[in-house]
């Protein structure tokens, strides 16, 4: 079972989206690994069902080791989005420890966004729930996804993202 040749895996390509990778047949899991190794981008995101990220296949892929949940009142301004602070309020995040790769943003010394390379591909970890209303309504939400999923990360600039979103870039 091969995965699409695009760099971004459509959610519908994985049966039972948001379920553990342990539910994938071995041949599909191997196809997923091959897809990432040849340039695919795989994103794992947080939420209350953090235990789904503690399975053996997830531990093999993630740049972090998931330990549980934590609370944060304020998230940092992401380095690529200096004029777009994250909404304040209580955030439930996945508590994790970086094991390989790099932390792109941290909260209290713990990864908020982490990344690792796998072959020609990349695996990202977001400690927050990508579907949380405060995140989906945040002005930088689309820009964050553009940056994470861009082939050429150096070509993604705040000005270009602001133009795409039809807003004024913060200076």
- Which percent range fits the helix content? 10-25%
Amino-to-carboxy terminus distance: 47 Å
The H-and-E topology, N to C, reads as HEHEEEEEHHH
The major β-sheet equals: 4 strands, mixed
Percent of residues in β-strands: 25-35%
Structural summary, described in words:
- By secondary structure, the protein is of the alpha+beta class.
- Helices cover about 25% and strands about 25% of the residues.
- It has 5 helices and 6 strands, in the order αβαβββββααα.
- A 4-stranded mixed β-sheet has the order 1-6-5-4.
- Strand 4 and strand 5 (about 110-120) form a beta hairpin.
- The model is unreliable at about 10-20 and about 165-170 (pLDDT under 50).
Short description:
The chain is an alpha+beta fold and 171 residues long. It contains five helices and six strands, in the order αβαβββββααα. The strands form two sheets. Strands 1-6-5-4 form a four-stranded mixed β-sheet. Strands 2-3 form a two-stranded antiparallel sheet.
């Amino acid at each position: 079972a091969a995965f699409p040749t695009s760099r971004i895996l459509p959610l519908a390509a994985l049966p039972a989206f948001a379920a553990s990778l342990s539910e994938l047949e071995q041949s599909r899991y191997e196809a997923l690994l091959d897809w990432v190794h040849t340039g695919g981008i795989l994103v794992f995101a947080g939420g209350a069902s953090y235990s789904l990220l503690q399975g053996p296949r997830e531990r093999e892929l993630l740049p972090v080791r998931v330990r549980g949940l934590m609370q944060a009142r304020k998230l940092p301004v992401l380095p690529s989005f200096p004029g777009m602070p994250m909404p304040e309020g209580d955030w439930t995040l996945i508590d994790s420890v970086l094991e390989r790769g790099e932390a792109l943003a941290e909260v209290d010394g713990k990864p908020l966004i982490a990344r690792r390379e796998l072959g020609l591909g990349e695996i990202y970890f977001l400690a927050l729930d990508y579907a949380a209303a405060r995140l989906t309504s945040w002005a930088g939400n689309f820009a964050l996804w553009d940056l994470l999923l861009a082939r050429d990360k150096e070509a993604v600039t705040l000005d270009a993202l602001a133009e795409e979103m039809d807003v004024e870039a913060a200076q």
